[in-house]
Amino acid sequence: MGEIGLPYNLAQQQVTNITVTPPQQVANSWGNSFGDLTVGLAKTFVHESGWIPDLLGRVTYEIPTGPESSNQVPLGSRRSLLAFSLAATKRQDPLVFVASGGYTKAFQTDQINLGDQVNFLTGVFLASSPETSLRAVLQNNFVDAVRINDVTFRGSDTVQTILTFGVSSILGRGVLVDLQVGSGLTNSAPKYSVTLSGTYRFPVPGL
């Protein structure tokens, strides 16, 4: 199965002067733009049978097509990443348990290498209706140190733990909308995030 994604990024950046009492906000800026184009392939290697779960392999490549910043606000684009992952799912109606692990290879873009990543994820999905599902997911990302012009910045390696809650709903034939809210549990993780995405499955004649 092939997949393609193009996000639209909206980010806010606040700058606070902590050298005065009380601290004062000196800047509040917003930036927005389309992000990096992602293409990928996914394939189910094992189908669930008895105690054996479904096993799904996936490979994606993020192409650095988006701008690095907008209105001097970083957008998290301009990344060249090749990712591999393997996910296991086990159904226990109305619940589905998920566990996955993956590795992401980061390539240098504009003299910057963001560092390779290893990630692990566990979660549970609840089918609240035939069209809608709820989920809770705990994700851990282990990120290597950043390199700029082949110089490694020591101490830039991080561990990011993020707890997310989401809802997916089928709105019509081939149309799915997903809303996800995340909260960072470690200092290097984003304090909060909100992601709204949609997918459309094109009909294939004969299938």
Reconstruct the topology from this structure.
Blueprint: E1 2-5, E2 8-17, E3 24-34, E4 37-46, E5 54-63, E6 69-70, E7 73-74, E8 80-92, E9 95-107, E10 112-113, E11 117-127, E12 132-143, E13 147-148, E14 151-152, E15 158-172, E16 175-184, E17 192-200
Antiparallel strand pairs: 1-4, 2-3, 4-5, 5-8, 6-7, 8-9, 9-11, 10-13, 11-12, 12-15, 13-14, 15-16, 16-17
Number of strands: 17
Largest sheet entry: 10 strands, antiparallel
Structural domains: how many: 1
Strand order of the largest sheet: 1-4-5-8-9-11-12-15-16-17
Shape: globular
Level-1 CATH class name: Mainly Beta
Q: In CATH terms, what is the fold-level topology?
A: Porin
Please, what is the average pLDDT? 90
Overview of the structural elements:
The chain has 207 residues and is mainly β. Helices cover 0% and strands 67% of the residues. It has no helices and 17 strands. Strands 1-4-5-8-9-11-12-15-16-17 form a 10-stranded antiparallel sheet, with no helix packed on it. The two termini are 13 Å apart. The model has no long low-confidence stretch (mean pLDDT 90).
Essential attributes:
207 residues; mainly beta; Porin; 10-stranded antiparallel β-sheet; 3-stranded antiparallel β-sheet; 17 strands; globular
In brief:
This protein has 207 residues and is mostly beta strands. The protein has strands at 2-5, 8-17, 24-34, 37-46, 54-63, 69-70, 73-74, 80-92, 95-107, 112-113, 117-127, 132-143, 147-148, 151-152, 158-172, 175-184, 192-200. It has a single domain, classed as Porin.
